[in-house]
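Sanity check

After download, print the first record. It should look like this:
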Amino acid sequence: MTESTSITIEPLDEITDDAVHQLADVLVDAVRGGAGVSFTADLTVDQAREWWRTSLAARSARAVVLVARDDGGIVGTVQLQPAWAPNQAHRADVVKLLVHRRARGRGIARALMAELERQARSRRITLLLLDTCKGSAAERLYGMLGWTRVGEVPRFATNPDGSMCDTVFFYKEL
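Expected structure tokens:
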């Protein structure tokens, strides 16, 4: 497969079996690559597909799931999950920024985050929150994108390899 230079970022408006399969592939690839994204190394493709089906069906009407596509299909994703509480309508969590290893180094994570911020602003969301494993590439990325580090919690989660992950929390005001 030749590497595509064309990437599109768009909301996932229609949940098709094909989209679920491609998102599952991105998730499984991230976990196999060691990303601390809520799953352990024994995640199967079928489990990833079920997680995506359940998550997409249960998302709030205000949530946004963005996908990055190249000529080969979905290579990245990120979610904007607005707070449910009426007194927190101004904030949202950023969830599951994932880029397939075959597509890394092409600015896809940055493009997904830029579009996520644009989507948040269009919904009058002015505060974004996220967390990631300390020392990860994601931690470095968020720092470069102007996110403010709040602090960390030791041994917050388990990495796919079974090691413990200290988790770093960030916020960004829009």
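If your output differs, re-run the checksum step. Summary of this record's structure: The chain has a mean pLDDT of 95.
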